[in-house]
């Protein structure tokens, strides 16, 4: 892996999305192979049980984000990875350089008979600060930007509607413009096994809370 050290330091000071020409080349094969089972929920990480649906959210460091969702009733599977960038099958280390363009993302498999996509959106908005651009708190970089990656037109419409409604709530509370990206059609690349269910494996691990206290209503 050829990391541009000078570029990395510059991106830390002034985060900007990498261009196609600057992006790392990546690889053809997935980083996570074979697919392990969820350390808490027990399913293979790529399993989507019949009748379940898939959602993708990025809201800062994905360790705490994943735990938030796997502890939610109606969520049957989760895994962490990267979306929204250029480099295929990036590693965690590569993504942290800012040279892949991806943001840390959790894949959420949920049973719509038990929890709705709108309920998941509520968890998303209420558990981070969606106005911070390329950062969450002290975590600075394009890999920490807020994003929703809808899997179909219904999710796209719901995500857009919820963003507009939450913007009104944020404005009332004195916050600025929401910077959350809503990008359909992105590819999810799973991270290495050590990052999957990280806070279950490392109970005292890093888990910042960047919630603003603003509720969806």
UniProtKB/TrEMBL annotation:
GO terms under cellular component: cytoplasm
Reaction catalysed by this enzyme: [thioredoxin]-disulfide + L-methionine + H2O = L-methionine (S)-S-oxide + [thioredoxin]-dithiol; L-methionyl-[protein] + [thioredoxin]-disulfide + H2O = L-methionyl-(S)-S-oxide-[protein] + [thioredoxin]-dithiol
One of the GO biological process terms: cellular response to oxidative stress
EC number(s) per entry: 1.8.4.11
Keywords: Oxidoreductase
Matching InterPro entries: Met_Sox_Rdtase_MsrA_dom (IPR002569), Met_Sox_Rdtase_MsrA_sf (IPR036509), MsrA_MetSO_reductase (IPR050162)
Molecular function GO terms recorded: L-methionine:thioredoxin-disulfide S-oxidoreductase activity; peptide-methionine (S)-S-oxide reductase activity
Peptide methionine sulphoxide reductase MsrA domain ranges (all copies): 55-207
Pfam families: PMSR
Family according to the record: Belongs to the MsrA Met sulfoxide reductase family.
HAMAP family the record matches: MsrA
UniProt cross-references to PANTHER family, sorted A to Z: MITOCHONDRIAL PEPTIDE METHIONINE SULFOXIDE REDUCTASE (PTHR42799)
Function, as annotated: Has an important function as a repair enzyme for proteins that have been inactivated by oxidation. Catalyzes the reversible oxidation-reduction of methionine sulfoxide in proteins to methionine.
Name of protein: Peptide methionine sulfoxide reductase MsrA
Organism: Arachnia propionica
């Amino acid at each position: 892996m050829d990391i541009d050290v000078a570029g990395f330091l510059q991106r830390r000071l002034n985060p900007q999305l990498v261009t196609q020409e600057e992006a790392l080349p990546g690889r053809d094969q997935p980083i996570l192979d074979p697919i392990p089972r969820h350390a808490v929920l027990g399913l293979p990480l790529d399993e989507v049980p019949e009748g379940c649906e898939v959602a993708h959210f990025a809201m800062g460091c994905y360790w705490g984000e994943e735990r938030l969702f796997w502890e939610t009733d109606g969520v049957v599977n989760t895994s962490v990875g990267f979306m929204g960038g250029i480099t295929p099958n990036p590693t965690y280390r590569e993504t942290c350089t800012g040279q892949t363009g991806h943001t840390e993302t959790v894949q959420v498999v949920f049973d719509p008979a038990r929890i709705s996509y709108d309920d998941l959106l509520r968890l998303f908005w209420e558990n981070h600060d969606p106005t911070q651009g390329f950062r969450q708190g002290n975590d600075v970089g394009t890999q920490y930007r807020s994003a929703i990656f809808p899997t179909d037109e219904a999710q796209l419409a719901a995500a857009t509607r919820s963003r507009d409604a939450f913007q009104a709530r944020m404005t009332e509370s004195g916050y600025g413009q929401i910077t959350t990206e809503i990008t359909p059609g992105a590819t999810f690349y799973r991270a290495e096994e050590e990052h999957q269910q990280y806070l279950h494996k490392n109970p005292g691990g890093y888990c910042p809370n960047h919630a603003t206290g603003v509720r969806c209503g």
